[in-house]
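Following up on my earlier thread - several people asked me to post the actual chain instead of describing it. Fair enough. Here it is, all 182 residues.
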Amino acid sequence: MTHRAALVGLWVVACGDNHGVRSTDATMDASSGGGGCTAILTGNVAETTTSFEVCPQLQPGVGKSSGHTMIDFVVPSSILGPLAVRIDLGATAMPGLYSTETTRTWSAIAVENVPVRGSCIFTAGDESVPMGYFALNLDAIEGASTAHGSLALAMAVLPFASDQGDQSDCGSNTTEALAVRF
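Reply from S.P.:
Thanks for posting it. Predicted structure:
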């Protein structure tokens, strides 16, 4: 069986209602006094980060998103390394709610290296199986590159085998949640 077929089989078994991500606005505080933005990872990784690195940037789209505005997050994690999230806001980015039901192009990925040459892939997006889920509440856009709001995201956790054929231990959860207040 190929790795892809095994991963698809794993996802069929592991998938449930992926709409369980809820906005955590009430529990998150991106300090308006200049403390940056706050990201909370929950699932196999339990980590909270508040810094300016967490704050997203608005960027012009390329490729299939050419002519659109993208919102890009690069969330630092001491466990996963950088977690990259990219969401297409369309030709005219406006405040409002964006989600997997309203946005065609989006992605999220991070890789955790585990002993012995194994890895855990945290992934979601329009080209991922399973797709995962996100809800982006864009409260305001300032200038050409600054946005304010919140993001709730659910990603799949995929274990990859080590070079010796042993399956990586990625933890007991098959999904990882990310919540960002920016």
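The longest strand covers residues 146-160. That should answer part of your original question.
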